[in-house]
Amino acid sequence: MKIGILGTGMVGETIGSKLVQKGHEVKMGSRSATNEKAAQWVSKSGNKASQGTFKDAAYFGDILFNCTKGEISVEVLRSTGEETLKGKILVDLANALDFSKGRPPGLIFGTNDSLGETIQRSFPDLKVVKTLNTMNCTIMVNANRVPGEHDVFICGNDPEAKKKVSDLLANDFGWKNIIDLGDITGARASEMLLPIWLRLYGTFGNTDFNFHISR
Amino acid sequence: MKIGILGTGMVGETIGSKLVQKGHEVKMGSRSATNEKAAQWVSKSGNKASQGTFKDAAYFGDILFNCTKGEISVEVLRSTGEETLKGKILVDLANALDFSKGRPPGLIFGTNDSLGETIQRSFPDLKVVKTLNTMNCTIMVNANRVPGEHDVFICGNDPEAKKKVSDLLANDFGWKNIIDLGDITGARASEMLLPIWLRLYGTFGNTDFNFHISR
Questions:
Q1: Is there a contact between B199 and A181 if contact means CB atoms under 8 Å apart?
Q2: Residues B166-207: pLDDT tens digits?
Q3: Which residue numbers delimit the Pyrroline-5-carboxylate reductase catalytic N-terminal domain (chains A, B) (predicted)?
Q4: Which one of A13, B56, B66, B154 is most buried, counting C-beta atoms within 10 A?
Q5: What is the per-residue pLDDT across B31-53, written as a single tens digit (0 to 9) for each?
Q6: Nearest-CA distance from A110 to chain B in Å?
Q7: Which CATH architecture has domain B2-204?
Q8: Cis-peptide, bond into residue A105, ω within 30° of zero
């Protein structure tokens, strides 16, 4: 499959590397077509990896991964041009933390909205699927990193897009427990897990944990 | 132990009944000393159960359980008189949902504050311990109701009060996995679990589930 990664940080690199390893063609996008971090990633990732602008990556991919910080995600997507995004699937795994009032951080979109919904509202022809945002990126791409049963949440307005993303999660990232939270308003529910995730990170001192719904 | 229950709803009744069953003396408080629901509960609960006003219950208990709705909790506590609350432990298991903007509901205290913190700020001499607010009340008092591993979160500013409440959770309610989130600011983290709890309730169609942190 052709995949566009938006963002060159640790999350983008981890997702991109895993998808290349699984045989997908991956273009990593950033503000500049010659971004150094993307160039380094391409040089070590073989001929299925490439780089470009955000627009290049969005144009290239059938499925796009939003690996930018939540506070700039809409602006980044806007920069690709709305026409570019039409009909594409965007896997939104970002979070939008608000450190303006100190720590622990709040959430930029509060409790009656979310980043996922904001992106979907801003780009109605994009199929936003919110998932993977409730764990460290090393676990996103390798569910077996955490022992025992644990879950990934998914939500979005387009059932077919959710199905495609679920298949990718299962086949490429090893996810067995995928909990469907319904339409994109479920994004506010999963984004509100971030504060306790941060708290647990502080308590445990590492990121090798994940949520599980026992029943 | 002497326990005061604030509130006569399903949560108050479930907590009160379990504590009576475990041998504690329990007074259920409400606005009126002759509240009918409290009277019914007393009549079926034996001689360790009694009823009174919120103030009576707060005066009676060494440990108090806040089983009122989060939107009225501070007002209820205020009605008991600050002197009454001095040095007492309050187990705050309430949540404060905001339905004013429709469904799914938001949280009244947003993402930079919480009910637990608001109560602690309002009554500095009360030892607020936030716990049990992330599950149905039938599970609060009977951890074995959900199979396998699952967790209860606890937080508060007073280590001794947390220890006393943890002992009660373990001995009377059967909790093995108690995760300490630190000081009372952890309340915003656990209160932000409510939106996904509500979503999962809608998805599963029942309340027999709970959060577990796998690691």
A1: yes
A2: 999 999 999 999 999 999 999 999 999 999 999 999 999 999
A3: 2-95
A4: B66
A5: 999 999 999 999 999 999 999 99
A6: 6
A7: 3-Layer(aba) Sandwich (3.40)
A8: no
Max Cα distance, chain A (Å): 49
Tell the burial category of A215 from Cβ atoms under 10 Å away from its Cβ (0-12, 13-18, 19+).
Answer: middle
Q: Domain coordinates of chain B in residue numbers?
A: 2-204
Contacts with A185 from chain B: Cβ below 8 Å: 104
Half-sphere exposure of A214 (CA within 13 A, CB side): 21
Q: Which tokens go with B110?
A: 């947003």
pLDDT in tens, A124-134: 999 999 999 99
Q: Give A166-205 as a 3 state SS string.
A: HHHHHHHHCCCCEEECCCCCHHHHHHCCHHHHHHHHHHHC
Q: Show the tokens assigned to B151.
A: 């967790």
- Closest residue in A to B102 (Cα–Cα): A112
The percentage of chain B sitting over the pLDDT mark of 90, rounded to a whole number, equals 99
Q: Return the H-helix or E-strand segment holding B16.
A: helix B10-21
Residue ranges of chain B whose CB lies within 8 Å of a chain A CB: 98, 101, 104, 106-107, 110-112, 146-150, 153, 179-182, 185-186, 188-190, 192-193, 195-196, 198-200, 202-204, 208-215
Q: Which residues contact A19 (CB under 8 A, 6 or more apart)?
A: A3, A5, A26, A172
